[in-house]
């Protein structure tokens, strides 16, 4: 009898992962249409007016997509909200990550009415609202390594499949041609990117990017891991003690090649956060992947319709 193939391990973290991955917690199922419809009316005609009153009373400027509520709740409402974000929060919460608790999803499947997610509100301030001089990046590094190690300790229930949390399409602001359909593995994921970006026939400087892109796609196979997908500083909440107390906006979460979590933060080389995620948090292990991702991003950006 042939031995089972050894699972591919993430390049990062180099230590701290179990030899045998933990079993993934149960992933929530999509709610019934009638349930989604019920919650839509609750959100739209009860919670939105309550939020407007609550924010006026506390002198909080209204936001077109985020509605603060009493009792530590928050309602997210815009055209790109999907129930899968709630499933991602549930999964992250079950893994022991500092994610909001998903409560309900409301939708009536109408282009005239936005869907919405009700969730718990987390403490802390967004990292991008804090003076960089007041941020202890050594603490952030330790916290992020712990969080990412925890996320990567769980085996995907979908095997090598590159897909959304629940096994379906992958969404997100930096995902090419989103919603990107589920792909059987990393090779199929790369093939879809080739198709979506129209690699064939590119000329001039684009042809140089295609060459670098092919070198990128020829790298050894990567592990498929649970990925936030937009782990930038505006989605990280920090407490008064400098520690991470929350990660928000799980709309881009999916099962993706392990480099994606880091490389997607480094698309713009001049940004301090991307350099921090690359050089400090992940110790530069994704240097080749980052170079390749940057090379093909101008081609990917043509397809970003999220």
UniProtKB/TrEMBL annotation:
Domain annotation Aminoglycoside phosphotransferase: ranges: 75-262
Record Pfam families: APH (PF01636)
Domain of life of the source: Eukaryota
Name the UniProt record assigns to this protein: Aminoglycoside phosphotransferase domain-containing protein
Organism, as annotated: Cyclocybe aegerita (Black poplar mushroom)
């Amino acid at each position: 009898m042939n031995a089972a193939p050894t699972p591919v391990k993430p390049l990062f973290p180099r230590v701290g992962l179990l030899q045998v991955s933990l079993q993934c917690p149960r992933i929530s199922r999509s709610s019934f249409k009638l349930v989604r419809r019920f919650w839509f009316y609750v959100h739209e005609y009860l919670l939105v007016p309550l939020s407007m009153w609550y924010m006026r009373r506390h002198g909080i400027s209204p936001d077109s997509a985020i509605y603060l509520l009493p009792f530590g709740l928050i309602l997210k409402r815009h055209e790109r909200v999907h129930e899968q974000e709630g499933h991602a929060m549930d999964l992250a919460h079950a893994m022991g990550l500092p994610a909001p608790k998903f409560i309900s999803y409301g939708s009536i499947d109408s282009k005239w009415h936005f869907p919405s997610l009700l969730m718990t509100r987390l403490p802390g301030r967004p990292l991008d609202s804090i003076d960089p001089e007041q941020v202890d990046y050594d603490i952030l590094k330790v916290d992020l390594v712990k969080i990412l190690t925890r996320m990567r300790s769980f085996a995907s229930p979908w095997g090598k499949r590159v897909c959304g949390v629940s096994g379906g399409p992958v969404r997100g602001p930096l995902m090419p041609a989103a919603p990107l359909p589920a792909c059987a593995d990393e090779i199929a994921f790369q093939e879809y990117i080739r198709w979506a970006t129209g690699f064939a026939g590119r000329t001039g400087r684009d042809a140089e990017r295609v060459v670098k892109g092919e070198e990128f796609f020829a790298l050894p196979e990567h592990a498929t891991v649970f990925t936030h997908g937009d782990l930038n500083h505006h989605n990280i909440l920090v407490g008064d003690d400098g520690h991470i107390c929350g990660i928000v906006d799980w709309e881009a979460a999916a099962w993706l090649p392990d480099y994606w979590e880091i490389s997607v933060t480094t698309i713009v080389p001049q940004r301090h956060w991307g350099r921090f995620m690359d050089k400090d948090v992940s110790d530069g292990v994704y240097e080749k992947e980052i170079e390749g991702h940057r090379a093909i991003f101008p081609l990917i950006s043509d397809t970003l319709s999220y």
